[in-house]
């Protein structure tokens, strides 16, 4: 079975210049947790997930680094949680999205897709054809198509 046979063709996505507000709105509206980020040619340039949002709005502790002769303190958050949340919304999606994206070709075998999802511990894979986004595959899609005929 190939990626093109099991992928979801209706892919929710954001453009590389969109604000994070657009991401959050789609997360809420479509009950999803991640989106491919595409350029004007519909090529995947990044991926943003709920984890990226959590890392930004979550508490950042102070870090102290020291040696015998030198001590440095990297300050954590000065602002409150609500302020971090408000400040995130107008930011460009590319400032927090993951730019190293793992994607699969539409002709990729389901066995290889399962291996990538498992080994890389990711939830979804963008599917591309000639570099252009054509679909998305989740862990659930692989499980459904792998076991449906056996149950």
UniProtKB/TrEMBL annotation:
Keyword hit for Endoplasmic reticulum: no
Q: Which CDD domains match?
A: CBS_pair_BON_assoc (cd04586)
Q: Where is the signal peptide?
A: none
> Which SUPFAM superfamilies does the UniProt entry name for this protein?
CBS-domain pair
Q: Give start and end of each CBS domain.
A: 7-63, 94-151
Q: Which InterPro entries match?
A: CBS_dom, CBS_dom_sf, Diverse_CBS-Domain
Q: Does the keyword Cytoplasm apply?
A: no
Q: Which domain of life is it from?
A: Bacteria
| Alphabetic keyword roster | CBS domain
- List the Pfam families: CBS (PF00571)
From the Swiss-Prot or TrEMBL record, give the protein name.
CBS domain-containing protein
